[in-house]
Amino acid sequence: MRGFVKGNIFRKIFTRKAAKYFDAERHEAKYILLMAFSALLINLYMEWFARFTTSPLEGFGWAIRNPLVFLFNTLIVFTSMTAALLFKRRRFVWFMMSLLWIALGSVNGLILMSRMTPFTLYDMQNFADGLTIATTYYSPAELALIGAAALLLIGAIFIIFIRSEKWKNISYKRSLGVIVLSVALTIGATWGCINSGLISIFFGNLNYAYRDYGLAYCFITTSVNSGITMPMGYSEDEIGEILESKTKRGRDTILETKADSAEHPNIIILQMESFTVAEDYANIEVSKDPTPVFNRLYKEYSSGAFEVPACGAGTANTEFEVLTGISAKFFGPGEYPYKGKLREDTLENLAYITKRHGYRTSALHNHRALFYNRNEVYKNLGFDTFTSVEYMNNVSFTPTNWCKDKVLAGEIMEIMEESEERDFLHVISVEGHGAYPTSQVFKNPYTEVTADDEETKWKYEYYLNECHEMDTFIGDLIERIEESGEPTVMIIYGDHIPALDIKEENYKQKDLYTTRYVIWDNIGLPKKNRDIHSYQSGAILLNAAGLAHEGIIFDYQQTNSPDKTDYLDDMEALAYDMLYGRKHVYGGKNPYEPSDMRMGHKTISIKDIVKIGDRYYIRGKNFTERSVISLDGKKLSTVYLSPTLLALSEEVKPEDVGKLKVSQVDKSEDEILTTVGANEEL
Known about the structure:
Number of domains: 3
Largest sheet: 9 strands, mixed
CATH superfamily of the largest domain: Alkaline Phosphatase, subunit A
Strand content: 5-15%
Helix content: 40-55%
Number of helices: 19
């Protein structure tokens, strides 16, 4: 009897424990399923909001058309949530993880309502950048509402934390098993998606990548995969071997300085925004060739296909490759060195190299100085001057409010004529920039477009007529250089194809990462047609100008064939050493110092301040429409009258008149770029 009772009690206890165990297991399974369902809804929200400006239903349509990519991104969100299983307050941790993803999707969607580039970690590199983003896109009232909402959210988080019950009987073994399994599934799914072509590890266009591969994958990839990865076997001996056996000059004489620019021609880089030719499109026909100048040059001078690291956007990375000779593909997906590394460090490039030979180095861009941080980066690339649109006069704009390129011809010629030495000019155009209108803009266009549908017709017609104006600018510039008699070598190319959602079957070049280039000269160079990568163009330019084997990367490119199996590996090792490694190429120390760069190539100065009636006027020289009168760093209401005269349209105290200054201001962010006072020059 005792044995029966004892056994019966044992069975009851065992059964009770088993029931509790299986109840807990079932409860946890339901919890995990609920977590997976919430990950799906959150991912759907992020993709819906990211596409809201295109169409309110486009996010749902994308998920239906791309179910595997959508589920892959859902798996990423879910995997991050499983970390909550290890915490006693797992519901609170789950809530916080969900909140982070919702915040990411919300910030990305809001930013895409104001700009074409999606949200990345680079946007929040520091607190100042974050404030810049906020004040750029939202009014003070909107920011106040956002601040109030943030305070309410913080309060809600605190309340949820207090009220969140602690999870009892956590099975860490089971929880770790779920986490490990989900991580393994995510890694396997990533490998499968990459190998099947559903996603990519190279982002030629950040906007297209987010659109095609999903927000969760792209944000994480761009956040954790940055810079140049240290190559296998990286060492001083390896770098020394590359320099000694695969370059002509090696390490010892690479930094020799010669003031011999008079023996060489001017060198001009002319990077044309989204510039292509009509004959490269199979889906349209034109009534008249919109780019006759470029097409003539293409036939008469060295030319070919130009393979770039960008598609539809990403100007700065094409620019980076041309200036430095370093492939942007060495960096993380969607990474812009201009937004990161080059804001901190100097880097050998065409400007530093030509400067060693006595060239004056100038950068020009008929757009904002702050765009892609060029006002910071160009100092670290060795430019003497940077003339942005804030320092230009006689500026005109396209119907979509981009500065027309014709203003650049006069600026270029002024620089060449005022300098006694030869010039290295890096010129970035902006007229061809998108977006492109889907309805008729030009009533009497230079060329008319025929297409299968109205939207395509009007977009291409607008774009190609802007290309015609850019082509006219190219012809005008060449004519003025020839009249000046200045010996010059100039490369002209499109930085990437336009953002017209072009399909490969409609584009006649090798792929969507290919434009065209021409190297024009007036010194009798032989015509050599070849297809090149944009990172090879700098070495070709230096060679054409009689500056062969100058610079580490350029020397390597001029000495070795790109067909060599280790060509890119060697270049990546050199680039890593120069930017992230121990600088073995220079004997252990980067020899390049930031330049004392001046904004604007023309001197801005104040002659005097006069009072006529009740109004004060500042007389001086080289004022522009972006010049404002300022007092103690505060911008005052100003009327631009001429390059020599500004009017103050608000009252100031008589004792403050002597402290009035003239500042150049960024129009978009209302930020002061440079300031000059009386008896000062800028």
